[in-house]
Amino acid sequence: MRPDGGTSYPVRSPSGRHLGEAGWGSRKDVRDAVEAARKATGWTKASGHARAQVLYFLAENLDADADRFVDRLRGLTDASEAAARREVDASVRRLFTYAAWADKLDGAVKGVPVRGVVLGMHEPWGVAAVSCPDEAPLLAFVSLVAPLLSQGNRVVATPSPRWPLAVTDLVHLVEASDVPAGALNVVTGDRDALAKTLADHDEVACHWYVGGAEGSAEVERRSAGNLKVTWVNRGRRRDWFDPAQAEGDAFLRRAVQVKSVWVPYGA
User: Fold this and answer.
1) 267 falls in which pLDDT band (50, 70, 90)?
2) Within 13 Å and on the Cβ side, how many CA atoms surround 198?
3) Burial, 189: exposed, middle or buried (Cβ in 10 Å; 0-12, 13-18, 19+)?
4) Domain residue spans in the chain?
């Protein structure tokens, strides 16, 4: 998103090379992004199969444009070509993984001590916020955003504040991959300042924060007032390349809420 105030900040490699400018997002930019997400109800109402096809298309487009993203990551992080290629390939695989899960995370039928059953129905939260870390700037973003999108949430995400350009490049692919406007909204800038605004916002139903211990505590404290569901890392790092730590059931289960429907039967 173009920042409302028109301000930006320089993005530099670890060696100090100037790589470009990123928008300095403000409270107004966050409010605008949440409003766009709130209106994008078509993504939530779409079938799991339809969402899967869109995410497959995005994964295929990222794979086709892999060389450009490898070059971008090398410039941002001073990584070797092999390391940058590994991150892009892992991001493609992760998108394919969550595309496959888009129509497969079923609910459950549970017995209860009465004449009836309870249906545990999975439903998206609605508008979800994501605050991303600096490490693995492309892969971490995909790992956090993709499970939420796959289950029908509309997402407002702040990418790595140090190296956001990999994600702003990805936004162009998102727009070309049939992802509806408002389903994914990106605001660049200071992660912790933007996280405070997202935590305060009543229209944001859940907030995933990956950053420092102080930022985690602040998100939890601010979210208590509006009963927002949070998932924070409290300063602990993940290995974003390890599927055991960075994909799968833990992410999918937190991407949905469970609605219990009681169904009585018999006498």
Assistant:
1) low
2) 38
3) buried
4) 22-264
For the stretch 142-180, pLDDT in tens is: 999 999 999 999 999 999 999 999 999 999 999 999 999
Structure-block tokens of residue 196: 């405070």
Cα–Cα distance, 167 to 218 (Å, whole number): 25
HSE on the CB side for 244, CA within 13 Å?
Answer: 0
For residues 245 and 99, the answer to whether their CB atoms sit within 8 Å is: no
Residue that is written with structure tokens 């001590």 in the block:
113
Q: At what angle do helices 66-77 and 165-175 cross, to 10 degrees?
A: 160
The length of the chain, given as a count of residues: 267
- What CA–CA distances, in Å, run from 154 to 17, 70, 205? 35, 28, 10
Residues sharing a CB contact under 8 Å with residue 122, sequence separation 6 or more, in sequence order: 105, 106, 107, 151, 256, 257, 258, 259
State both tokens at 40: 């994008």
Helix (H, G, I), strand (E, B) or coil at 198: helix
Using alpha carbons, list the distances in angstroms from residue 34 to 23, 37, 64, 130, 262.
17, 5, 31, 12, 33
Read off the pTM: 0.94
Strands 229-232 and 206-209 come out as parallel
Angstrom distances, CA of residue 221 to CA of 129, 182, 218: 16, 27, 5
Second-level CATH architecture of 22-264: 3-Layer(aba) Sandwich (3.40)
Tokens of 238: 């993940």
Please report which helix (H) or strand (E) contains residue 241, including its range: none
